[in-house]
Amino acid sequence: MWYYHFPVIGAECDLPICVMSIGLNDFQYHVKRENHLPHIIYCTEGEGTLIVEGNKYTIRPYQGFFIPADTPHEYYTVGDLWDTHWLTLGGKGVNEILSLFGFTKAQVYTLSDVTRLNHLFKKIYSVMKSDKLYGNYYAGGFAYDFLVEFYRLANNKASEEQSGANPTILSAVNYITSHYTEEITLEQLSLTAGVTKQHLCKLFKKNFGMRPVEYITKFRIQQAKRLLCSTDDTIKEISFASGFKDCGYFCRVFKRYELMSPMDYRRSDKSDV
Q1: Is the distance from CB of 73 to CB of 67 less than 8 angstroms?
Q2: CA angle 269–270–271, rounded 5-degree value
Q3: 86 with 23: CB under 8 angstroms?
Q4: Which residues contact 155 (CB under 8 A, 6 or more apart)?
């Protein structure tokens, strides 16, 4: 399977960020470039090789990489299959936006769960193909969401792998990851982390820009989105499986963060490519 789209770019290039091209290959042909726009590629099947800045990497499922503009690189499939989801970015503010996310140099990332990433990737492709007048404008907004999700996945994994990562915040995050379906109190979390509630709140604010309770809620919403996209479970079943004990409350919180109901979110995913 393969598909791609190279839109005719007009005034969209004056926006802070826009999509210059997007595509998916299940057998990535050999690419060797000296100059190129910044782009992100991630894989869900097979295996490939990336060569950039004198380094050689093996890219396997749930890994991705970022290539800055004008960075010589080369990549190709190893074996019979290597799917690549690729997104090339442009726009007047793209370099500044990428820099704010920390995407300033060629780097390989391990991604824990690409469900949401796939959802956004499909939305970008779908809107660019279906709306000839304004699709490219909408795609720029989805591209920013895509960057946020890629950053979240890359940053979460990187923080776990860094030897100098704060063990206190990691123990709290790991506890949330393992117990999000249960009731989690600030007292339990601070006890697990071995610090006071006040200090734990400061650590979460510093690392994530939010309090622990909000982090827990957002984590549960992420799990709900994954289930909405990958299962046929009812909204009530998903609310409980995500750690929400009241379905009505779950729907209200979901709409607050996603600006649509859980059912509308599921429909939007089903309508994508």
Answers
A1: yes
A2: 90
A3: yes
A4: 102
91: Cα separation from own chain's centroid: 20
User: In sequence order, what are the beta bridge partners of 40?
Assistant: 66, 87
pLDDT in tens, 172-216: 988 998 899 999 999 999 999 999 999 999 988 887 788 999 999
| CA nearest to 71, candidates 109, 116, 93, 38 | 38
Give the confidence band of 165 by pLDDT, cuts at 50, 70, 90: very low
Distances (CA, A) of 157 to 37, 75, 170, 178: 26, 23, 11, 16
Q: What phi, psi does 91 have (nearest 5°)?
A: 115, 155
Alpha-carbon gap, residue 69 to 88, rounded angstroms: 10
**Whole-angstrom Cα distance, residue 178 to residue 133?**
46
Question: What are 64-78's pLDDT values in tens digits?
Answer: 999 999 999 999 999
Strand partners, 76: 49
Q: What is the pTM of this model?
A: 0.60
Give CA angle at 181 (180, 182), nearest 5°.
Answer: 90
Inter-residue contact 110 to 39 (CB < 8 Å):
no
* Both tokens assigned to 31: 């690419």
CA distance 52 to 107: 9
Other C-beta atoms lying within 10 Å of the C-beta of residue 47 = 16
Q: Look at residue 221 and give its three-state secondary structure.
A: helix
H-helix or E-strand containing 84?
strand 84-90
pLDDT band of residue 270 (cuts 50, 70, 90) is low
Bridge partners (DSSP) of residue 52 are 55, 73
